Amino acid sequence: MLKCSDILSIRAIFGYIEDRFGIRNLSESEKCVFLEDHDQKTNTSQVVTKDILSHVLTKEMSRPTLFRAIKVLIKNGFLEHFKEKNRQIRCYNPRTKHRRYS
Q1: Is the residue at 77 inside a domain?
Q2: Which residues contact 38 (CB under 8 A, 6 or more apart)?
Q3: Fewest beta carbons less than 10 Å away: which of 5, 17, 24, 66?
Q4: Domain containing 51 — which CATH number?
Q5: Distances in Å between the alpha carbon of 15 and those of 36, 66, 83?
């Protein structure tokens, strides 16, 4: 049986991981978009926004909320627009600013 102390322990672990990864201060929607982007597997490290919209973490999110989250993540350096295609973004590791390669 799950206890409140178990949930507290899990939340503490998640908080520690978010701190170490540098995403603790992001909103929940921004975290979902960022984590979803990392979950996408592509050979070129670009992600198409339609893939973000259909992911399990973001499929219930409204389009305006999703695009606001993307805008904040780009502004803060977690993502960048892929210059060659209009609807693709690149994901960065927030701690090292290195591109994610699959």
Answers
A1: yes
A2: 91, 100
A3: 5
A4: 1.10.10
A5: 18, 23, 34
pTM: 0.71
Alpha-carbon distances of 69 from 13, 14, 53, rounded to whole Å: 24, 20, 12
pLDDT tens digits, 22-62: 888 999 999 888 888 777 655 456 677 777 778 888 888 88
- Number of structural domains, the chain? 1
Task: Note whether residue 32 is domain-resident.
Answer: yes
Band (pLDDT 50/70/90 cuts) for residue 10 is very high
The letter for the amino acid at 79 is: L
Query: Cα–Cα distances in Å, from 47 out to 11, 12, 13, 82, 83?
Result: 29, 30, 28, 9, 12
